[in-house]
Amino acid sequence: MVTGGTKGIGKAIADELAEAGATVIISARTTPEETPHHFIAAELTNADQVAGLAKQIAETFGGIDILINVGGLTTPGGGHSTLTDAHWLQELDLNLISAGLNSKNKHAAAHIKALPSK
Known about the structure:
With about 120 residues, this protein is of the alpha/beta class. Helix content is about 45%, strand content about 10%. It contains four helices and four strands, in the order βαββαβαα. α2 crosses α4. Mean pLDDT is about 80; it is low at about 110-115.
């Protein structure tokens, strides 16, 4: 599972995982025009959508073996001096809080915890 897997770093990671033989599921807010990977739309800052995403993956694929959270960037250009408090909070919500929602979700966590340690 690669969040933000439709472009940029997320897409590159998804492509590399697939090339290595993994079944790759990607998610993002908007559906890509085309992708070789399994896609499920989700807004990662919304706990209900994260729960729906994890549940759908658990039901369709049996769970998540690897979770890679690539949130994205929503702030305007221009450097740190142009960012408002709202911009900082929006980035924290997308890149930090969404990672916590993903990793603590009962559908994702139950499967990840069941994997054997090496």
